[in-house]
Design brief:
A hairpin with a 5-residue loop joins strand 3 and strand 4. By secondary structure, the protein is α+β, with helices and mostly antiparallel strands. The protein is 27% helix and 28% strand.
């Protein structure tokens, strides 16, 4: 099974059920929860180069002056995700703000802090890390579970941002 498939199936097993239990509806990549005066959003956004994704949350206020979204071609109030919102919160991720479903190596430098290198799936078997890089994530099913657990933990923290954002816009 390809890394992307392992990651998506693990998200479906561990993270998506929690969102659904909390009253969100939808399916990957966009989930929403309708409340009295707002709609809360959770979106999973894939890296255009593959191998990683990020998670963003936001809320929109359809009946308020500050709606917090702008519709664009092909997107309606029923279909948009956080990408259409003006203000949103991105989960910090695990490495450089991303959740990687690849092998990840890290090198600590004095000026730049941690520098990460992820290895495309087709190169994993033959990859030789550059000098000074240390393996920090070997991607497999266990790593996918760890990623989902980290997302769930970060979503709990993000809930505080969301409630504060909603309070500011009431």
């Amino acid at each position: 099974m390809a890394n992307r498939d392992v990651m998506l199936s693990t998200l479906k097993e561990i993270t998506f059920p929690i969102l659904l239990e909390q009253g969100f509806t939808g399916k990957y990549p966009n989930f929403r929860r309708k409340l009295d005066n707002c709609i809360e959003l959770v979106s999973f956004q894939s890296n255009k180069y593959g191998g990683s994704f990020t998670v963003e949350i936001s809320a929109v206020f359809p009946n308020e002056k500050n709606k917090n979204y702008e519709l664009y071609d092909g997107v309606t109030e029923e279909t948009f995700g956080t990408e259409a919102t003006n203000k949103r919160y991105r989960l910090p991720g695990m490495f450089d703000g991303w959740f990687y479903y690849r092998d990840v190596y890290r090198k600590h430098t004095l000026f730049f802090g941690n520098v990460y290198t992820d290895v495309p799936e087709k190169e994993m078997n033959d990859f030789v890390p550059p000098k000074g890089y240390k393996l920090v994530q070997k991607f497999n099913k266990n790593a996918a579970i760890q990623i989902c657990n980290e997302i769930n933990k970060q979503l709990t923290t993000a809930e505080k941002w969301l409630k504060n954002f909603e309070k500011q816009n009431r």
